[in-house]
Amino acid sequence: MVWKPELLEFVLNRLVQLVRSGVCFNMGFKEEQMKKVAADVLAFVGVHVTTLQLYNHIRNWRTKWSVITKMKSDRILDWSEAGCCFYGGDEGAADEYIQRYPKHRQYVGTPITNYAQMKTIFTPRFVCKAQLFQPNLLVRAIDFIADNEAEYAVYCKVQPPERRSWLRTWLRNQFPA
User: Are residues 111 and 165 in the same domain?
Assistant: First the structure.
């Protein structure tokens, strides 16, 4: 099957809608969710898509996302969030990077298509009762525990289910939806 750009964007947008609706996808999307997306594709373009094709499609995008996050963490090239592209800060930095990693050529100097959708789908999120929390919020909770010895003592004495409850309550109080 040939994935045309419009179809790629349509599928990614449907997956973004699933994520924003509170679907938990830590272990991947479920079969019924993929069947719903496949039915939407059939209604949108009249092309029958199997769930296996959708899973392979997601795997390809996840691979792209892992390359992008690796490039961002390497900090060899400069990243423009507004333009969704990598560029060489120094004149030879981009050429040097491409020589070292020739497969990453497509990501240097050109805007990355569907970056916002990939970011929404593949950025790790922690789900607590259908409320999405970014990892930095959990780091703030851990910092709070570390800074307050009394809270830390109480936190360590309770069982893991109560710890999760405490964390949910603290996050909801600090960052109301």
Answer: no
Encoded amino acid at 22, one letter: G
Burial of 169 (0-12, 13-18, 19+ CB in 10 A): exposed
What's the pLDDT score for residue 39? 92
- Residue 127: per-residue pLDDT: 46
Is residue 100 domain-shared with residue 159, that is, in the same domain? Answer: no
Print the domain residue range for 167.
126-174
- Total of domains in the chain: 2
Contact, 89 vs 77, CB < 8 A?
A: yes
Do 69 and 52 have their domain in common?
yes
Bridge-based pairing state of the strands 85-87 and 126-128: unpaired
d(CA 22, CA 127) in angstroms, rounded, equals 8
84 has pLDDT over 80: yes
Give me the percent of the chain exceeding a pLDDT of 70. 86
Residues 22 and 107 in one domain: yes
- The two tokens of residue 38 are 């496949």
- Rounded to the nearest integer, the mean pLDDT of the chain is 80
